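Chapter summary example.
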Amino acid sequence: VHHSKLDFFCKLGYSKQDICKVLENLGQEALEDDVLKELIRMGSKPQALESQAQPAPPKLIARGSCSTSPVSQWLGGDESDSSSHLRPIVIDGSNVAMSHGNKEVFSCWGIRLAVDWFRERGHTYIKVFVPLWRKEPPRQDSPIADQHILEELEKQSILVYTPSRKVKGKRVVCYDDRYIVKVAYEKDGIIVSNDHYRDLQNENPEWKWFIEQRLLMYSFVSNRFMPPDDPLGRHGPTLNNFLSKKPVLPEPTWQPCPYGKKCTYGNKCKFYHPERPHQAQLSVADELRAKIKVPGGLGKEEEPCTHSP
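The structure predicted for these 309 residues follows.
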């Protein structure tokens, strides 16, 4: 009898200690209703109710813990790598070298100046295309200055020679401009050249748009490589936004009102007034309602007042 009652109340969720105490007080032959009343009077609760009454302790997460989501890890890695925001650079080596040599000498030093300028900005992908026959010793009709720079850039995997060969004493040269535009288009990068590539623009409409939007022109001022601050004109992006994949929008600047304190437009004036506090632009009717603050229910429940004579 003791075991049967013990199992019965254990199934109800009460602890064995409380059940044994009640059975000792009431006796082994006590009715189940009496045992249940005594358990309730003692304040004993089933274990299921106790677990519901006690909420689970909150999980504390330390700030800056290593358990971050994949999205935050990706964002953190993207922010740390500043070079990922910069566009690849493809340099027209022949155009840059001849520009630095005043269109008379193939100046390899001009290529080095351009490469160093982009390196200092943090660009990691820089490619320079030069015809292969520039490896040959210089001649009177094609002088080359500082030819050893080409070998140094080739060892650094920056300079790429476009193929050329000789057939029956005549030099057969591949069109290096096509290499330049094609690589820059595939890499979604920037073309550094003063050439407009009009023949390639007419050849492919996609290349036409790309050359118009991604061509970076330059100048050499006292052996200094200087691209313009506005590559696409006065109304175009800045040089930093032009060379980056994620352009930074400038902060809006407030233009002061030309009328000053004599302005009669009030809050509807779109110019900046330093003497006026910043507030929401309300219409005249809304301003009057806010000042008067007439209660909405006034006049609806009015009843004629009867006065005694």
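To summarize the output: Residues 1-42 form one domain.
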